[in-house]
Write a structure and sequence with these properties.
InterPro entries: WD40_repeat_dom_sf. The structure is a single chain. By secondary structure, the chain is mostly beta strands. It has a domain of 40 residues.
Length: 61
Protein backbone atom coordinates (compact mmCIF):
# COMPACT_ATOMS: atom_id res chain seq x y z
CA UNK A 1 0.00 0.00 0.00
CA UNK A 2 1.52 3.27 -1.11
CA UNK A 3 -1.16 5.62 0.17
CA UNK A 4 -4.18 5.29 2.43
CA UNK A 5 -7.11 7.62 1.75
CA UNK A 6 -10.00 7.84 4.23
CA UNK A 7 -13.25 7.19 2.37
CA UNK A 8 -15.84 8.31 4.93
CA UNK A 9 -18.03 5.37 3.86
CA UNK A 10 -20.07 3.85 6.67
CA UNK A 11 -19.52 0.25 5.51
CA UNK A 12 -17.37 -1.96 3.27
CA UNK A 13 -16.39 -0.62 -0.16
CA UNK A 14 -17.30 -3.01 -2.99
CA UNK A 15 -16.00 -1.04 -5.96
CA UNK A 16 -13.52 1.80 -6.50
CA UNK A 17 -12.22 3.15 -9.80
CA UNK A 18 -9.99 5.98 -10.93
CA UNK A 19 -11.85 8.37 -13.21
CA UNK A 20 -10.54 8.49 -16.78
CA UNK A 21 -8.72 11.65 -17.79
CA UNK A 22 -8.52 12.87 -14.17
CA UNK A 23 -4.76 12.42 -13.89
CA UNK A 24 -5.45 9.71 -11.30
CA UNK A 25 -6.70 12.41 -8.90
CA UNK A 26 -10.36 11.37 -8.67
CA UNK A 27 -11.84 8.06 -7.49
CA UNK A 28 -15.46 6.93 -7.50
CA UNK A 29 -16.33 4.36 -4.83
CA UNK A 30 -19.51 2.38 -4.09
CA UNK A 31 -20.18 0.71 -0.75
CA UNK A 32 -22.48 -1.42 1.34
CA UNK A 33 -23.85 1.74 3.00
CA UNK A 34 -25.62 2.59 -0.30
CA UNK A 35 -23.53 5.71 -0.92
CA UNK A 36 -21.37 6.62 -3.87
CA UNK A 37 -18.41 8.90 -3.19
CA UNK A 38 -16.46 10.97 -5.70
CA UNK A 39 -13.15 11.81 -4.02
CA UNK A 40 -10.11 13.87 -5.00
CA UNK A 41 -7.26 11.85 -3.46
CA UNK A 42 -4.74 14.67 -3.83
CA UNK A 43 -6.58 16.80 -1.27
CA UNK A 44 -8.09 16.30 2.15
CA UNK A 45 -11.15 14.00 1.78
CA UNK A 46 -13.08 16.17 4.22
CA UNK A 47 -12.73 19.12 1.83
CA UNK A 48 -12.95 17.54 -1.62
CA UNK A 49 -15.49 14.73 -1.53
CA UNK A 50 -18.96 14.48 -3.01
CA UNK A 51 -21.48 12.02 -1.62
CA UNK A 52 -24.43 10.68 -3.61
CA UNK A 53 -27.20 8.99 -1.63
CA UNK A 54 -29.46 7.96 -4.50
CA UNK A 55 -29.46 4.24 -3.61
CA UNK A 56 -31.32 2.36 -0.90
CA UNK A 57 -29.20 -0.60 0.16
CA UNK A 58 -25.88 -1.87 -1.07
CA UNK A 59 -24.22 -0.38 -4.16
CA UNK A 60 -21.77 -2.54 -6.05
CA UNK A 61 -20.75 -0.55 -9.15
Amino acid sequence: VLVTVPSNHGASIYSARFMPESGDHWIVSAAEDGNIHYTNITRSPELIQYKYTCHHGTTYQ
